[in-house]
Amino acid sequence: MNVSEYLLNKYNVPVPRYTSYPPANHFSDEFVAENYKELIVKSNQENPELVAFYIHIPFCDQICFYCGCNAIKMRQSHAVDEYVAMIKKEILMVSKNIDKNRKVSQIHYGGGTPNAIEARYLKEINDLLFNEFSLIDHPEVAIECNPALLTYEYMDELFQAGFNRFSFGIQDFDEEVLKDVNRKPSALPVKQLVSYVKEHDSSMAVNLDFIYGLPGQTVDGFSETIKKAIEVRPDRLVTFSYAHVPWMKENQKILDKKGLPSADEKMSMFLAAYDLLKKAGYISIGLDHYALPEDELCVAQSNHQLHRNFQGYCTKRTTGQVYAVGVSGISQLSGGYAQNTKDLKVYLKQISQDVFPIEKGYIVSVEEKLIRMVINELMCNKQVVWAIVAKAFGVSTGFVKQTISYNEDILKGFKDDELVEYAEDMLKITELGTLFIRNIVASFDPKLTSGAKRYSKSL
Ligand SMILES: C[S@@+](CC[C@H](N)C(=O)[O-])C[C@H]1O[C@@H](n2cnc3c(N)ncnc32)[C@H](O)[C@@H]1O
Ligand code: SF4
Known about the structure:
By secondary structure, the chain is α/β, with parallel strands linked by helices. The chain is 39% helix and 21% strand.
C-alpha cells in the first residue's frame, strides 16, 4: 500500500486510541466505590451478556524503557502471596454482586508480566473463577507473557491451569534494539515455543506482539523481524505503533535522548510489515492486528461480528462486560467504566477492608453509548449502517446522525482523500482509511475539544 506524504502530514496528529468511549482521560475521581457496586448490580439487568474477567498482574523483572503499561519492577518486598490473596478476595467481592445465571466467556491476564509470578498462583485464581461461575463452551483463558522468563516446564503449568490462549511479547527480534530499551530476548527459540503450544493442543491460539517506532529500528530491520515472525506462523500478530507519552510515563523520557524514528520512518515500518504479512496470507484486523484466515477473528470480521475491549479484539461470541481485578484494572461495563487505584499499597489496604479500590470512573449516558457503538463498529468492522444503530437505541437515523455530530463536509474531506465511502444509509472505511481510522472516528466524538487533553499521535 502507498501512502502520500500529504496524507501523513495531514493526519499524523494527536487523537485518542478509542479503546473505550469516552476515552479513559475523561474518567472522573468523583466516581467512587459505591458507584462501581451499583454499576455491577445494574450490569445484571442492562445487556446481561456474558461475564469477562481481566486480571492485572503488575510485576515485571525489569522495566522496558518504552513501556506504557501499569508495570512495577518486582522487589523482594513485593509479597506476591499477599497480592494474589487480595486478587482472590476482589473476585469474591465482585462475584457476590453478579447474577450466577450469567456465564464466564473470557478470562484475560495482563500486566505487567503475569508470568513473572509462579504459575501455581495463576492456577489458584483460575480455579476460584471456575468454581464461582459456570462457563460457556470453549471460554477463552488468555495470558500475556514475557518470553524472556518462559521455560517449557512453566508452559506445562500454564496448560494445567487452564490457559488456552498465549500472547508472547516479542517486540523485535533484533537483540540490539531490545538492549537499547532495557529488554531481554526470548529465553527459548520462539518457533519452538509456538510449536510447543500447538503440539500440546492444536486448538490453542498463539499471538505475537511487536512494536515499531523504537530507537534503532529501521524499515529494513523491522522487515527482517516480521519475516522471522512469518516463519514462526503464529495464529495472530500485532504491530503496535510505539505510543510515546513521556509526560505520563517517566521511563519513556530516556528514549527522547536515544532518538526516535520520524513519523515517515514509522509509517514505512508499518507499511512494510503490512505488505509482508498480507503477502504471507495474513488478514488485517482493525488497525494493527493480523490473523490467519481460519482464525475466528477473521471469520468474525467478515461477518461483521468483531468486537473489542481494552484487552484487544474478540468475537461477539465471547464478548462480555469486563470486570477487572487487580491494581489499575479498568472494568468495562455496559453502564460505565471503573478504574482501580494504581497504588499497590492503597490497593492492598482497601481490598483487605472490603472496599472496592476505585480511583476513578465514568457513568456512560445513552448518547455516549450510541457514539460508542458507532465508534466500535467502525474500529472493528470498518463500516456502520445507520439504521442498525437507530434500531439498537429505538431512535431515528436522523437522531443518530445528530448525536454523533454527523458533518457531510468533514466526511467529504475524508472521501476526497479516499479514506471513506458513504451513502445516505451507511459509511465504510476503505483499506487506505484503515490507517487513519482514529482520525475518522474522532470526527464523531463531540468530546474532542482541541488542546484540552494530550494524546499520542495517530501513527
Ligand atoms: C503487558 S505487555 C505484554 C506482556 C509482557 N509484559 C511483555 O512485555 O512481553 C503488553 C504489550 O503492550 C505493548 N506496549 C507496551 N508499551 C507500549 C507503548 N508505549 N506503545 C505501544 N505498545 C506498547 C507491548 O507490545 C507489549 O507486548
Ligand atoms: S513491556 Fe511488558 S515486560 Fe516490559 S515493562 Fe512493560 S509490562 Fe513489563
